[in-house]
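Protein data:
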Amino acid sequence: MIFFISPGTAFKEEIKMLKHHLKKFTEFKGKSKKDSGPSDLLVPIHLENYLHKQIKKHKNLKNYFHYLILKFQKRDLSSKFPDAAFRKTLYQSKNQQLIRYSFRPDYQDWYKAKFIGFYFSLSVCRLFSRLVDLDREEDLQIINLAEELIKLGKQKIHFHFYFKIFSNSKIISKKMLLGKNFELNSA
């Protein structure tokens, strides 16, 4: 007796097998374990001060790690890690002065970081260092923008009042008496 399987059925069976294999592959089946062991992150020394400020701001490294994963997971990071997809995994240089931070991350965050790192061919430590660096760059941009706005606010700005021809003549005469600048817009 010969059984024939349609191509659609074979494809569905293959998907089921892949899903089953993926469930076995994920260590904790996507669930966070409270007693998971500590993880270490190696961070370059030039990020140490900024990282300490962020750890204080977010109360601990676990919360800051979670914040970075959420902040950057929906962004297109391919421009930040160019031409890295599916190459040999890149680690941080041994010549760098690296500082070790131990913490117990939430498993879902660690899994997402490993997945993003796998996609961009980066170790989790290198990925974390780059995300901290990107976060620092964004903070610097915000600070620079705020300083520019403060400088702009301190300058004297001449205000021009624009009125249409059919505006109230009493308002126009008040502005003229007070010495305010205005222009008539005939358009």
Remarks:
- The two ends are 89 Å apart (CA to CA).
